[in-house]
Design brief:
alpha+beta, phosphoprotein, acetylation, single chain, Ubiquitin Conjugating Enzyme, 12% strand, RWD_dom, coiled coil
């Protein structure tokens, strides 16, 4: 007849020796304890960790122990689910022999895998960001490839903007035409226009300069004196053209 109590006590002593810093007894009847399992350090010294709680059933190891995840750090929900499935599989495979060390070792390996997956996932995210940045840079220098669809969209937008500009210009020209005054209207609205030239000459006074050189050659010009013309009749306007 198997002495389950003896096997359980012997395993507890062995576990306390193997995990001196992470083994904690919670109760003696039924025997219940926790073991904290930590992964190896990742790329940035990051780790994942879980504390497993085990409780011996009356006929352990012929029956699987009760187990649960007592606490965890940096694990996703799917990681927790995977660990519980792993414990169930290992417990089923090791019925009949003490198995806590085997279960903890399996969880330890799983945690190391999770750290590797985190590293791989971050590398993929980094590569994806680099790829997106590269594509954005190419887009900046090469622009958007022209397709029939985006060309038609651009042309429709361009035509609409051009039409708006033409409408605005026509409206401005029409408004300018309405506001333009005729010469008569200008004189009617500004009475200073008819005296502006006279006022200019009065303001100039003696300051008007005459270039006398323009008249130096006047004496050299051969001008006919109408009075020397024997046919000249000052009372007859046509006498000048009789010749």
């Amino acid at each position: 007849m198997t002495d389950y109590g003896e096997e359980q006590r012997n395993e507890l002593e062995a576990l306390e020796s193997i995990y001196p810093d992470s083994f904690t007894v919670l109760s003696e009847n039924p025997p219940s304890f926790t073991i904290t399992v930590t992964s190896e350090a990742g790329e940035n010294d990051e780790t994942v960790q879980t504390t497993l709680k085990f409780t011996y059933s009356e006929k352990y190891p012929d029956e699987a122990p009760l187990y649960e995840i007592f606490s965890q750090e940096n694990l996703e929900d799917n990681d927790v689910s995977d660990i519980l499935k792993l414990l169930a599989l290992q417990a089923e495979e090791n019925l009949g022999v003490v198995m806590i060390f085997t279960l903890v070792t399996a969880v330890q390996e799983k945690l190391n895998e999770i750290v590797d997956q985190i590293k791989t996932r971050r590398e993929e995210e980094k590569k994806q960001k680099e790829k997106e940045a590269e594509e954005a840079e190419k887009q900046l220098f090469h622009g958007t490839p022209v397709t029939i669809e985006n060309f038609l969209n651009w042309k429709a937008k361009f035509d609409a903007e051009l039409l708006e500009i033409k409408k605005k210009r026509m409206k401005e020209e029409e408004q300018a035409g309405k506001n333009k005054l005729s010469g008569k209207q200008l004189f009617e609205t500004d009475h200073n226009l008819d005296t502006s030239d006279i006022q200019f000459l009065e303001d100039a006074g003696n300051n008007v300069e005459v270039d006398e050189s323009l008249f130096q050659e006047m004496d050299d010009l051969e001008l006919e004196d109408d009075e020397d013309d024997p046919d000249y009749n000052p009372a007859d306007p046509e006498s000048d053209s009789a010749d």
